[in-house]
């Protein structure tokens, strides 16, 4: 039987009592809303399908994120990046809402708002995946069985993050003793020459030789590198399984020549340090390339506007990321190993994912045709 009480000038409290069911209480702004809610609860109890909404209605999204960070995120290897996402979400107005009050339309607005702020679609998808898992854990493990997952009701941002960037080479002009000197260099050599980090050139060369991820290179232990057998063991990888990586003679030599560190690692650089050093070297290399190219084009008699246009469309040392070295390495290794062996080297769980990293040049395929 439902009992309604007026509380104050404009609120109604309703209580629903049924034998065998816990007492349900809620406050509304109008009597009609209170009666509608009470009728719904009574019908669910009579049908034996009632599930309490109290936990979901009293738990804020911010509190749920806090609990998730403590119970779930803290146990993940990628906890640092996910904790950063959680802290960002906790500053959003949506964090003040109860879990039960959040609807698909709210998250659709959140999605559109984040995209309008300039976030990449892939980043927004990761945020939505995190929110979705918070709701799933709340429903399965936090006594919120009545909770629905609003992320399942909205469209995900479309992502086209496939890259086919290969290492380029070009004529590089430098001024030596008042004379322009030309060398044909690839981007890796330019980055190594302009690196401010003494260790980066070895890391870049090692990445292209092995196809290892940035975090795998940074975490590689000397004890896990067998230079006689020319193999490196990676006990923990991105997909959670271990794998062995064959080392070329160049890769083995790089490990052998690295100074020994107290912590047992081969390289002292951390993943974020590698990225920063790579971007700094890339920027310096591009500036040096543009300066030399400008001098060369002017010596050829081109006008300033023509020089600027030629430099602007030149792709050398532009739109290059450290992770592209893994694409380059995979494409090179594919010329040596069949795909089923290559998946074991790169750590891809299936050939479909591997193909995202394999980018043969059309001219190289044409040579195989004869």
UniProtKB/TrEMBL annotation:
Pfam families: Phage_integrase
SUPFAM superfamilies from the UniProt entry: DNA breaking-rejoining enzymes (SSF56349)
Keywords recorded for this protein, A-Z: DNA integration, DNA recombination, DNA-binding
Residue span(s) of domain Core-binding (CB): 59-139
Domain of life, per lineage: Bacteria
Keyword field contains Cell wall biogenesis/degradation: no
Domain Tyr recombinase: 163-370
Species assigned in the record: Stutzerimonas decontaminans
Coiled coil: none
The protein's name: Integrase
PANTHER family: INTEGRASE_RECOMBINASE HI_1414-RELATED, PHAGE INTEGRASE-RELATED
Keyword DNA-binding: yes
